[in-house]
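Exercise 4. Each item below gives a protein and its sequence. For each, produce the structure-token representation.

Item: PIN domain-containing protein (marine sediment metagenome).
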Amino acid sequence: MRLILDANALIYLIKTGLSQEFISLTEDDLIIDKSVYDEVVEKGMENKYPDAYNAKDFLEKNQIPIIPIDIKSDLNKFRDPGETSCYILAKKEGICISSDIRANRKFKNLNVAFMELDTFFYNQLLKNRIDKKRFMSILNELKGVNGTSANRISIFLELISNEGEKNE
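Answer:
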């Protein structure tokens, strides 16, 4: 199974400094589409966003494949090329990692596998690949860049509490 990063997930990973931890926890192939690369790196560098340079370094250092996808036929379903390419790649074989609520609603309606970034880290907690303290720290880092919400954090706290009760 491939994980496909949407632009917002890539930006949140870079802004929080979680990108290397994410890649070390990833058990599947990780890819992005050329549209996501253009949105995050090319346009970001044009606008002199420091995160764009960090994203470029991260992608190069970890040799993340950048896949060109023809998005014309599905572009009308989504807001931007990055979401469209994530949809097309996930539809073929993979899971789109996106924290865009609107895009995820569309992915769900179109029966395409997706996962929010905070859920990825929650799954790592469930697999005992990170501990509860680290998970809470990650949630706070994501919240600081709008990569998750207080509401989602409260849901995770409830899930953790319920999980703890099961294990007692």
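Check: The mean pLDDT is 92.
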